[in-house]
Amino acid sequence: MATKKLFTKEMADTILNLGRQGASQKSMYSAINISKATAAKWKQEDPFFAETMDMATTYGQSYWEMMMLANVENKAFNSRIAEIALRGQYPDDYKDSREIKANIKQEVTVDFNKEVAELISALKA
Fold it and tell me: Model-level pTM?
């Protein structure tokens, strides 16, 4: 029977260091030898792991944003690739929002004679 693997301080340090280098979550999981499924389970069950991943992800996002800012005027820097990386790794923060407006027409038939008759009856009562 396999022993249950526990999240350790050393693993947290590894993940945080990778986050500071802009690594993806998958790279972080790989570095501590866990699967995406294990990571999802740990995020639910282990507040220390959840907070470590949240912080590492914040570090990673900050890394890529700073790289883009530092290279705004660098024509050799491929900002499109950096943008794609940001959108892929942090979709909640970089998703396109689109408003959809729709004109909906509905055909309505009103029996005015009936409606007027009901209104007159209501007023007489």
Answer: 0.68
